[in-house]
Structure formats: structure tokens, C-alpha cells
Amino acid sequence: MTGRVAVLGAGNGGQALSAHLAMMGNQVSLYEHPDFALNLAKIKEKGGIELTGTVEGFGRLASVSSDMEEALQGTEVLYMVVPSFGQMPMIREAMPFIEEGMKIILIPGNFGSLEIASFLRNEGFVKGITLAETDTLPYACRMIEPGRVHIWGIKKGISIASFPGKDTEKLVNTIREVFPIPLRPGDNVLEIAFSNLNMIVHCSAVLLNAGRIESTGGDFRFYTDGVTPSVGKLQEILDAERVKVGRSLGLDLVDAVHWIKASYPVEGDSIYELLAKNPVYAGHGSDAPKMVKHRYVTEDVPNLLVPVVGFARAAGVQTPVMTSLITLLSAITDGSYMDSGRNLERLGLKGMGVEKIREYLGSGSLS
Fold it and tell me: In the 8-state DSSP scheme, what is residue 29?
């Protein structure tokens, strides 16, 4: 079965997903915000997007537009592939054109479905839609130029859950054939967001490579040269805190070592070994951030680490290393991430205990 889908966001991941879905036989509408519409000109000229690397071919798109109404017309499934800070502006742009029954999947979600649900509720939005999020992108990829994306690797599968959680199985059955890789249903969106390992790998590696980033302008392999045994050790300590907080919330989380081995064709017993040997990251040259104030900090700290620490506090769990990482990265980038990030108030969960949070995640109801 094929269908008509919309991809919102024309960055690396959005272009890769659009092209791959089109190559599978789907009618794909690609949307980009007017402020970034320059990305669309060459794609329109070509009529689609060329993929090279692990996935080879040309995906011809049904439409390429910065008109949201045009992009959403006739679609039931919307994949929002934008950075966390772009999710709320995108949903505000889409809201007038969202129809009953639409399914909006954030790739990755980073707790965004909860913030969107809280926003829509406060706006009095009453149409029946399904929100969902994945834990990561299907691809490791880089845009060579608009309309041409190189894919270094494609994951064996990714995890997904809907909000409310009771709708996850139905959602997966609906979109399974209009998604390029296998989907693993999660218990709820909290389990999915907690499973995004960017908070473990990106943030710590930027901090411990700050001098190298600034002295070389990022001229090194971030995941291999930048993750030494000591860096990997800190990442495993952070990961243990993540898993501990998740368990206090009733989440059955997989530790980073087993997650990486399940996602990529690589073997090892530590994060350091698994990243150093990973062919997806080790073979394509320099890929480190060119500056410390990079989205690996400005996106992952406020939208991943901050909410995890917020949930830890609600559950009475200590996260000394994770909290220190937020403090240090806030200091060197002049940020105030603990205050400005996705705290429990922004997620509509302020004042809730663990049991109430779990009930809300499953039912979507505050009553």
C-alpha cells in the first residue's frame, strides 16, 4: 500500500525521508517555512531529490512548497522533521489546516508531542488528531546541496509512540507501509524521548572537546576522534543516570551500548568501542561542530537533558553528572537552559506526581 504524505522540513533528514518515501511509491508533499524557502528552489527545478550512499536513487515529489495549506491538502500522515526549536513554530503554521484524523509524527520528538498537546489544549483545539514521536531519525545523512543528500547509514529500525499511548498500536499499523524502516512501538512518548541518545553522546562530547572544536574549527571526526575512552566513560555515567530516571517513571529503557548494537551493524562492549568502530561515522571524514554553541548544545541540552532532569526531580532521583553538564554548557555558551528549556511546565506536567504523569501519558486526559 502507498499513500499521500507530507514532510514538514527540508533539512538533511526531511529531504532524505521525502526522497526515500517517494522512491517507495508514495505521493510526497515537501514543505519548508517561507524563511527557509531558498532550500526549495533547486528541488523544484529537479522535480525531486537525489539520494546517494546507502540508499541510491531519485525521489520525484508530488509537490514542493512553502505554502502550508497546499502541503497538507489531501494528506492524513504528516512527518515533522525539524529541530526541536522549530516544532512549535511549525505547528502554529499548520494549525489552521489540520483536519480531523490527521496523524502528526515528530522525527525525532524530544518531548515535543507533550508541548504541542499542551499548546493545542490551551488554544481550545478540539479536532481529533494523533500526535506521535520517534526517538531518532531513520538515517545518518548530510545534504550535499538542496536536492541531493548522501546517506552514510540507515538504521535497522526506530522506536515510536503516540500521545495518548493507547493509540500507538493503531498508529503503527496505519503508517507501517508509508515509513521506510521498521517501527518498534513504545509504551508512551516519554519512553521514546528518553531513548534519544543525542543527550548522552552530543552534549558530553562537545564539552570535553571544546578546546579542540575551537582550535580546529571542527576539523576532526566527532564520534570517533572526539570520543576517547575517557569521553566514553563519562557518557556511560550519564547513560546510567538516564536509565535510572526512566525506571523511576516505569520506563523499560535500553542502555546505550545495547541500543547502538541494535541500531547499527557494529560490535563492542562500551560506547567508546561502538562509536570508534561504527562504519556509519568512522569513514566520512571531519564532521565535528565548527563551534561550541552548536545545535548539539542549543537543541539537545534544553530539549533533552533539561526535561530528563525535571522528571528526575519529580521522581526524587538524583542526577549529579547530568545536572553538572547542563550547568557547564550553559556557562560556556551564555545560556540559561534550565529556565528556558522544556521543563515540566512547558510540557503541561507541572505539579504532577509520577502516577498522574503515567496516567496522562496513556490516556491523554487530565481528568
Answer: E
User: What residues have CB less than 8 Å from 331, skipping those under 6 apart?
Assistant: none
Give the number of domains in the chain: 2
Residue 108, domain member (yes or no): yes
Residues 240 and 98 in one domain: no
Mapping DSSP to helix (H, G, I), strand (E, B) and coil, where does residue 200 land?
A: helix
How many Cβ atoms from other residues are within 10 Å of residue 285's Cβ?
8
pLDDT, one tens digit per residue, over 112-168 is 999 999 999 999 998 899 999 999 999 989 999 999 999 998 988 999 999 999 999
**Band (78; pLDDT cuts 50, 70, 90):** very high
Burial 227-259 (b: 16+ CB within 10 A, else e): beeebbebbbebbbbbbebbeebbbebbebbeb
Residues 183 and 227 both lie in one domain: no
Same domain, 178 and 213: no
Report how far residue 144's alpha carbon sits from residue 149's, in angstroms, rounded to the nearest whole number.
5
Q: For the segment 336-348, what is each residue's pLDDT rounded down to a tens digit? A: 999 999 999 999 9
Strands 57-60 and 48-53: antiparallel
Q: How far apart are CA 271 and CA 230, in angstroms?
A: 11
H or E, element range at 86: helix 84-94
Unique residue bearing C-alpha cell 488528531? 129
Q: Residues 6 or more apart from 250 whose CB is under 8 A from it?
A: 354, 358
pLDDT at 367 (0 to 100): 62
3-state secondary structure of 274: helix
Cut 0.70: pTM above it: yes
Q: What is the pLDDT of residues 198-209, one digit of tens each?
A: 999 999 999 999
Is residue 220 domain-shared with residue 73, that is, in the same domain?
no
Q: Which residues pair with 79 in a beta bridge?
A: 7, 105
Same domain for 164 and 253, yes or no, is no
Cell (9 digits) for 332: 560556556
The span from the CA of 168 to the CA of 188, in Å, is 8
State residue 210 phi and psi, 5-degree precision.
-55, -45
CATH of residue 175: 3.40.50.720
